[in-house]
Write a structure and sequence with these properties.
The structure holds two protein chains of two kinds. Chain A contains 16 helices and two strands. Chain A has a two-stranded antiparallel ribbon with strand order 1-2. By secondary structure, chain B is an alpha/beta fold. Chain B has a single domain, classed as P-loop containing nucleotide triphosphate hydrolases (Rossmann fold, 3-Layer(aba) Sandwich). Chain B has twelve helices and ten strands. In chain B, the strands form two sheets. A six-stranded mixed β-sheet of chain B has the order 6-7-8-3-9-10, with helices on both faces. The longest helix of chain B is centred in the last third of the chain and has 18 residues. Chains A and B meet through α11 and α12 of A and α4 and α5 of B.
Chain lengths: 351, 290
Amino acid sequence: MLRNLQVYSTLTQPFRDPWGFLKERSRNPELWINLVVIGGAVLFLLSKGTGFAITVGTVFAIWAILAVSLNLVVGFTGLMSVAHIGFFGVGAYSMAILTSDPLYEQLRSETIPTFALPFFAALPVSMVMAGLVAVAMGSILNRFRDDIFVLVSFGFAIISFNVFLNWRELTRGAFGIHAIARPAIGGWEADGKLEFLLVALVFLGIVMLITWFIVSSSFGRVLTAIREDEQAIQVYGYRAAHYKMAVWVLSAMLAGLAGGLFASWTSFIDPNSFILLESILMVAIVILGGLATIWGSLLGALVFVLLEEGMRFVPFIPTEHIGQGRQIVLGILLVLLMLFRPQGLVGRYKL
Amino acid sequence: MSAQGQAGLLRRLKQKLTGSHDGGNGSALESAEGNAAPKGQGRLLELTNVSVHYGAVIALDNASVGMDKGEIVAVMGPNGAGKSTVLKAIMGLAPVVGGEVYWRQKPLHEETHKIVDLGISFVPQGRRVFIHLTIEENLEMGCLYLRDRAEKRRRLDAVMELFPILYEKRKDMASQMSGGQQQMLAFGRGLMADPEVLLLDEPTLGLAPRVVKEVFGKITEINDTLKTSIFVVEHNIKGALDIVDRAYVLDKGKVVHDGTPESVRATDILTQVFLGKISEKPVASGSESE
């Protein structure tokens, strides 16, 4: 009871006594980082209008789901994987194939199987497909550790891209898949941008809740222990490989969910959205935000999306160089971060 | 964990609380419950002619080591003698190419993560506590598989009673503890599994001399109060010889001496292995000097 009261009082302090709260925390860099990132985002979006803000918000929600799910593996369990884009892609392609409009298909010479399922029927299938691929991939990846693990996951990311590009009977290769369904329940359809943003934010909330439950359970504590000392945890009677597999598959399913959302949002996908670079950007977001913190992944995704969308408003960069410019800025940001704040924006653990 | 094992810890706790530390009473109780091996008929834990090869490197060469219930046994020797490999062979962490490890006279072929259920708990070298978890969480890692919350609570209390420092700092991160305190935490985490045998790998490594004394004191205390058999690998000869019932001396993967601490002290076997004289000729009887 007393402890609950204390938690309550720390939670309400900023509202009861904002000035004192700020004074107390003004030496805490995390508060400033939060203020700067969120304040910057709000100001930037306000200046650009609602339509733009909604688009940025949706992109943010999808990246945030990806970052939170990847943080489960990279941050909480300590398995540095760059194969996550594969699960994102499997989720997206499952959604595309299952919900793509058959009428559109008839216009094409090369046909692929179509099912015309609604969004909410296809989404669980997307997650399960990503999970199944993760089981197959994980059973191989589980044999490796540290550097080799990264290299093998690297290989998987490249393989998955080539499968999307070359399995034309299923993915129509570089032509991509069109007319992917929007979320709809009963008579309501999230066809507008605002409605889709709401759906994406609800899913982000669900993913954050699931992740929070996982990491604060005893299962999550074993994951932390695996990150710190895998051999020691085995000696105390845990089959580390099983735990690693479980979190790997779970994380892949959440990435599949993000993929399904992404496919539905853009309503068109092609293999170019699932290149290795995207996977590395994902890892960069997780490290930027901070390992093993859900909030950090959100902040990291926010910074990344603002960079990505905000660069186009920088006046002196020619339009054709914006794409590369983003990567340069993100690269510099990562270098600075590793130099001055190796634990990430709000994290506690160093890489 | 078997019901027997839980009953075992409770009984030992009761013994401890009532202050009846004499072995006679304890063994009478044990034989009445019938979960103790009769004395003299084989050993609790035994390695017979075990060889371990890491590629071309021979870490253990036909080594035979054993312990009885309730004993403190030490394995000592210079760097690279294969001391830690003995423990790794028991825990299934080393590639055993020959010989056999016996647990209660039965061959031990379990995978590493199952061995703790048999009653063997391993405290690894260099402590290896989880520095980003609190003391209490660290201890709970020692028996997380245990579903019985009350039993978990009882074990926590028992361990914290044995190590008061862990109770004081139970909400602190393990990274905030000193080396000696972390060693106590590692002991405590090992004891949370309610083991019959505690395997300690170099428990005094990198600790200050005063703390080393404290650690050896705790080892004796664990052995006295919980009746846990202890198998300790040590490089600190002087301290270890004072507390053990039996000592093995290893050199270059071979057991060169086996006997009571007095027999080790009586010969110059340790001088020989530590100064490298013994390596010049194969050892038949280690107790003879050149």
